[in-house]
């Protein structure tokens, strides 16, 4: 469990999910939570149970499907409604029953918002805070309070804003996070207000939005002024210009200010984790993102090449390995030999120097073509086995495939795929129908192979993501497809890259089935 003296609190699954164009399924949220836990954050806010059915479902499934090593889950919700008891408010009950040990309550701290948005009295708002916090703490939950619009509230009515803090702290809230909800603050003024707030004796947290481009700077300024709890989102996701980027905040505090926030080896996974999360969100990664972006340590060498070679530290602010990134002087994505060897070990292979050299070469070559292995472990393992065993284990070989997409009179669009395969000495031809070409291909492959490999019945294609990658250096754009499959015991992801989306999908599907058979313990 993380040290309680300083909190790293992630709100990707709640506030980050407000980002335009971002839409997370419950499975996506569970996957992101696992990644954040791998990073070692102390708290993961899962959403608003009771107000949002998907979030209620998230907390229900989290109880059996999430095995968190570092983080504790927080359920987000509002203080009770005006005029009812917290104990009788169904939304408060949903928080209580979410199974989360932490409840983060959002409360108004701006007097005009109390009157205009809540349409209640200032006194009743304080009573709502007092009652809800003390009810939930009496029920054994740890309560954090998000003081909404705190900085604007402080500017217009400082006495009331501070009264909200005191009330929450006295009622038992263990942290009061000051929210720059509009994101309009600059570091110097924000720090002054945080300092005043810390003077009340309440434990102060900070929650910043990036509307001025200062969310991270504001967070750091708040910490210097006394905040001991920082909130933010993976990759800076969030509404409008986003929330404070939690990765940048953590790296800054740990590497520049000496805070001991996450295990150093987890910090060394930060780049991988940041990218793995973008594959779940399907938001194109920001290559210029501090610390973890692919360009964060990329040098256009030119005149400096030889100097960089002699002493790269002259040209970069930290050793990129500390955050799991790499200095790059070339265009390819470059898997490091060390990470390839490490990954091989994780999969049960002790690679010789020669094997890892060959594997790194293949990974680099494929990544330059648009493959990504950070998010496609199964494809990496197949590649590793190819490299070590010579030729990939073939459960089947492909003679050909074909897909037809037909728009029928009336408007229905259907797809039909035919595959011709060889397996166990037989030539098999099978046809599958589906609502789309990939679905049809998937069905055709299963039909062809299920008699020979009945275990395939348990393998399911659960996710399919397509991204168009811009061409580099005069090449055309290519399509990358990531397929996630599952069986009774787990999930795995495979990747395909081609100019044609169906061909890219086929590559990912073929590997998905091969890997599924490998898991089922077949020897080809
Ligand atoms: Zn927010």
UniProtKB/TrEMBL annotation:
InterPro entries on file: 2-isopropylmalate_synth_dimer, AIPM/Hcit_synth_CS, Aldolase_TIM, Citramal_synthase, LeuA/HCS_post-cat, LeuA_allosteric_dom_sf, PYR_CT
Stated EC number for the protein is 2.3.3.21
Q: Which GO terms describe its molecular function?
A: (R)-citramalate synthase activity; 2-isopropylmalate synthase activity
Q: A Pfam family for this UniProt protein?
A: LeuA_dimer
Q: Does the UniProt entry include the keyword Transferase?
A: yes
Q: Which residues form a coiled coil?
A: none
- Catalyzed reactions: pyruvate + acetyl-CoA + H2O = (3R)-citramalate + CoA + H(+)
**Per its record, how is this protein called by name?**
Citramalate synthase
């Amino acid at each position: 469990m993380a040290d309680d003296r300083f909190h790293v609190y992630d709100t990707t699954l709640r506030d980050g999910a407000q980002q335009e164009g971002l839409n997370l399924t419950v499975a996506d949220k569970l996957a992101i939570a696992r990644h954040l836990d791998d990073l070692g954050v102390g708290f993961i806010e899962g959403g608003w149970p009771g107000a949002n059915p998907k979030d209620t479902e998230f907390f229900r499934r989290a109880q059996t499907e999430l095995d968190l090593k570092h983080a504790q889950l927080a359920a987000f919700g509002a203080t009770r409604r005006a005029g009812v008891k917290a104990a009788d408010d169904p939304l408060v009950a949903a928080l209580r029953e979410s199974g989360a040990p932490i409840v983060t309550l959002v409360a108004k701290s701006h007097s005009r918002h109390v009157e205009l948005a809540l349409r209640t009295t200032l006194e009743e708002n304080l009573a709502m805070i007092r009652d809800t916090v003390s009810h939930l703490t009496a029920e054994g939950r740890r309560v954090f309070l998000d003081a909404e619009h705190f900085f604007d509230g402080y500017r217009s009515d400082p006495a009331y804003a501070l009264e909200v803090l005191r009330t929450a702290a006295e009622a038992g809230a263990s942290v009061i996070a000051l929210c720059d909800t509009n994101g309009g603050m600059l570091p110097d003024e924000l720090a002054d207000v945080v300092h005043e707030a810390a003077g009340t004796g309440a434990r102060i947290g900070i929650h910043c939005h990036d509307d001025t481009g200062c969310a991270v700077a504001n967070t750091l300024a708040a910490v210097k002024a006394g905040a001991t709890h920082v909130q933010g989102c993976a990759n800076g996701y969030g509404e409008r210009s986003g929330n404070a980027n939690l990765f940048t905040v953590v790296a800054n505090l740990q590497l520049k200010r000496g805070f001991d926030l996450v295990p150093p080896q987890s910090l060394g996974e930060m780049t991988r984790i940041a990218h793995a999360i973008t594959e779940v969100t399907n938001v194109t990664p920001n290559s210029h993102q501090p610390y973890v972006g692919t360009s964060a340590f990329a040098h256009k060498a030119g005149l400096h090449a030889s100097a960089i070679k002699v002493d790269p530290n002259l040209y970069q602010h930290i050793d990129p390995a500390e955050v799991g990134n790499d200095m790059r002087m070339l265009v390819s994505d470059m898997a490091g030999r060390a990470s390839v060897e490490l990954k091989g070990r994780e999969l049960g292979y002790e690679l010789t120097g020669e094997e890892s050299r060959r594997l790194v070469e293949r990974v680099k070559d494929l990544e330059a073509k648009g493959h990504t292995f950070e998010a496609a472990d199964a494809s990496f393992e197949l590649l590793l086995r190819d490299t070590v065993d010579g030729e990939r284990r073939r459960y089947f070989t492909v003679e050909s495939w074909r897909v037809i997409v037909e728009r029928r009179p009336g408007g229905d669009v259907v797809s039909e795929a035919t595959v011709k395969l060889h397996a166990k000495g037989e030539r098999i031809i099978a046809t599958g129908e589906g609502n789309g070409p990939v679905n049809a291909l998937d069905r055709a492959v299963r039909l062809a192979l299920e008699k020979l490999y009945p275990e395939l019945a348990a393998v399911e294609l659960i996710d399919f993501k397509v991204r168009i990658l811009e061409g580099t250096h005069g090449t055309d754009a290519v399509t990358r497809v990531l397929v996630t499959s599952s069986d009774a015991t787990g999930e795995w992801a495979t990747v395909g890259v081609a100019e044609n989306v169906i061909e890219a999908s086929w590559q990912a599907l073929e590997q998905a089935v091969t890997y599924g058979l490998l898991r089922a313990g077949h020897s080809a």
